[in-house]
């Protein structure tokens, strides 16, 4: 049954159950038209692979001409209203919609943007409600979509973009042709393309395990002695040395609440942190070409046994299982940002002394680490579970819905295609140049970057931006937009003693490589997606409720009880899950090797 045949009764039921989202407000008024850069149709400026882009090196100067489409100048005389459903991270509504990049882009294509930004944590529900009611926004952020994109196309929810690649998407096509790995990831087996993807030119791992090295320095007088003999904790034995020191530190500081180690509410990291040290991945992973599921493997018993031991000794945060909303698995952010956590899943911005609070006399040193190897169990090196995101995926970007008529569709094709040109990707990733009117943007003036964030036609920061220590790059760019995230040079103000923390973190988190990653870009047929969603939902419901109980001792953990746990996973469809994922992975490998 197609979605347009769904009954109004079902739509009304969804409305009652989920509640209507707050409607987006009208976007800010458009700015001037002094410097309208080239757009779709300028395929000669499109990007190739990351290798030939360079870091901050001068590129062909950005031109000032009206946007075009397939070599034909667009008629932009009438403003066009465009509604967009998108997640907005943790910034306010007003801050999100006022981003200068959005304003510049909207002005370039004479668009009036209306935003529908669901409250954080409700994105998936609100998206499902939209699908059920058929009241689609013109543009849909698919980050929280759980349905197969081909199914959404078949159900007349979104457009297939492939027919427009040759005629109206020259920049997007040029980039895909120059980057076959991205093209293979985004086009399905039939050559269809359903969304404008966010593409990483040269991705770095942005998150992973971190620890407070300063605590260990304090407790050992600067003479840390990891049993492995390494400078950082690399084995379970090292962690058995580290965690008691952290507990002693927090207790001697008389902290009422603390966490030596924070793990997710479900008891494991789905991406495989910690578990990789036991020779298994989090959920699906690949070993010698065979797809496996970490939480069903025999070695998961060893992981659970260790987590239960650490929990009973007071090393794992006692309240870990009660909070589930935070995407970084932090059940209480006051612990990490208040200096009361020892090990957690952190991000690049946590590294070094950036979390220090001098006004409270709190000085910290946060360092990135890999998963600890269970050497006693025969594991000498953690599995290669990074980079877990890859350069592009089918769950990151925006799709155009069938709410758009033909005229609006063609305008949006040109607008989105611009974001895959060199100039467009520079703009979305780094912000506005002086030639793009930076001096006329109030927020740029307020932040002291009236000369723009980058030199025109390049990926080189302006002197103002290079030394703008008070504000991060994300205060000027807009990475929620589709397009290419360019590989720009690290700003001088982001270096610490000449060291790029992002590089240090990436090297630590990716030390074991990515040989065991089950790529996010593996594609499934609509039938496979429907069956997989049903089976995995049942498996997760059971496993994610049982695993915390086993760790906390609320359920007995023995070899016999673990065997019963594995048997239950089998009965819920684990063999079929692996069969579906293996078939899709094999197709993915075959297509990538063509």
Please explain how this structure is put together.
The chain has helices at 8-18, 93-97, 100-108, 123-133, 149-154, 165-168, 170-178, 180-186, 213-220, 236-252, 300-312, 333-337, 406-418, 422-430, 442-447, 463-466, 501-509, 526-552, 559-571, 574-592; strands spanning 68-69, 72-73, 80-85, 111-116, 139-141, 196-200, 207-212, 259-261, 284-287, 290-293, 341-347, 366-368, 397-400, 483-485, 495-496, 499-500. With 594 residues, it is α/β, with parallel strands linked by helices. Residues 1-46 and 49-65 have low confidence and may be disordered.
- The number of strands is 16
Helix proportion of residues, in percent?
25-40%
Q: What is the overall silhouette?
A: globular
Taking Cα atoms only, what radius of gyration do you get, to the nearest Å?
25 Å
Low-confidence stretches: 1-46, 49-65
**Proportion of β residues?**
5-15%
Number of helices: 20
Distance between the termini: 35 Å
For the biggest sheet, the summary is: 6 strands, mixed
Structural class of the helix and strand makeup? alpha/beta
The whole-number mean of residue pLDDT values reads 86
Strand arrangement, largest sheet? 4-3-5-13-6-14
């Amino acid at each position: 049954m197609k979605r347009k045949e769904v009954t109004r009764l079902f739509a009304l039921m969804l409305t009652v159950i989920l509640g209507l989202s707050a409607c987006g407000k009208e976007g800010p008024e458009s700015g001037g038209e002094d410097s309208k850069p080239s757009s779709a149709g300028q395929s000669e400026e499109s990007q190739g692979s990351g290798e030939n882009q360079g870091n901050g090196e001068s590129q062909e100067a950005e031109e000032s001409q009206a946007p075009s489409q397939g070599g034909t100048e667009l008629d932009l005389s009438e403003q066009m209203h465009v509604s967009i459903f998108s997640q907005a991270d943790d910034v306010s509504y007003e801050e999100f919609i006022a981003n200068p990049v959005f304003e510049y882009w909207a002005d370039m294509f004479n668009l009036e943007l209306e935003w529908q930004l669901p409250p954080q944590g409700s994105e998936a529900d609100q998206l499902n409600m939209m699908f059920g009611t058929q009241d689609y926004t013109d543009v849909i952020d698919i980050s929280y979509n759980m349905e197969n994109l081909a199914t959404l196309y078949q159900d007349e929810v979104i457009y297939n973009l492939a027919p427009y690649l040759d005629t109206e998407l020259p920049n997007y096509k040029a980039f895909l042709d120059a980057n076959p790995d991205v093209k293979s990831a985004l086009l399905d087996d039939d050559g269809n393309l359903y969304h404008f993807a966010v593409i990483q030119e040269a991705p770095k791992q942005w998150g992973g395990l971190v620890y407070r090295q300063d605590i260990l320095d304090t407790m050992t007088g600067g003479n840390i002695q990891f049993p492995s003999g390494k400078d950082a904790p690399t084995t379970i034995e090292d962690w058995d040395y580290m965690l008691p020191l952290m507990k002693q530190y927090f207790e001697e500081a008389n902290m009422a609440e603390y966490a030596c180690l924070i793990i997710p509410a479900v008891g494991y990291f789905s991406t495989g942190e910690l578990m990789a040290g036991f020779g298994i991945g989090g959920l699906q992973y690949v070993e010698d070409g065979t797809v496996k599921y970490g939480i069903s493997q025999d070695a998961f018993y060893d992981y659970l046994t260790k987590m239960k031991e650490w929990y009973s000794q007071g090393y794992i945060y006692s309240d870990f299982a009660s909070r589930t909303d935070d995407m970084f698995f932090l059940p209480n952010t006051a612990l990490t940002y208040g200096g009361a956590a020892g090990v957690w899943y952190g991000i690049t911005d946590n590294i070094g002394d950036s979390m220090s609070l001098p006004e409270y006399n709190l000085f910290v040193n946060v360092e990135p680490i890999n998963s600890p190897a269970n050497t006693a169990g025969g594991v000498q090196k953690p599995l290669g579970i990074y980079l877990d995101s890859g350069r592009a995926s089918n769950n990151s970007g925006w799709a155009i819905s069938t709410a758009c008529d033909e005229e609006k569709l063609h305008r949006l094709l040109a607008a989105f295609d611009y974001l895959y040109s060199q100039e467009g990707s520079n703009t979305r990733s780094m912000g506005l140049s002086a030639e793009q009117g930076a001096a006329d943007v109030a927020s740029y003036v307020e932040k002291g970057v009236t000369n723009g964030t980058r030199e025109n036609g390049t990926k080189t920061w302006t002197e103002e931006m290079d030394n703008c220590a008070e504000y991060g790059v994300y205060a000027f760019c807009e990475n929620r937009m589709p397009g290419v995230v360019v590989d720009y040079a690290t700003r001088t103000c982001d270096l610490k003693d000449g060291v790029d923390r992002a590089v240090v973190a990436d090297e630590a988190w990716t030390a074991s490589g990515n040989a065991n990653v089950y790529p996010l870009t593996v594609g499934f047929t609509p039938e496979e997606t429907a069956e997989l969603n049903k089976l995995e939902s049942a498996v997760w419901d059971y496993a994610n409720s049982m695993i915390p109980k086993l760790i906390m001792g609320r359920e007995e953990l023995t070899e016999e009880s673990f065997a019963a746990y594995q048997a239950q996973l089998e009965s819920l469809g684990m063999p079929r899950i692996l069969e579906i994922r293996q078939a899709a992975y094999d197709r993915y490998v075959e297509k990538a090797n063509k």
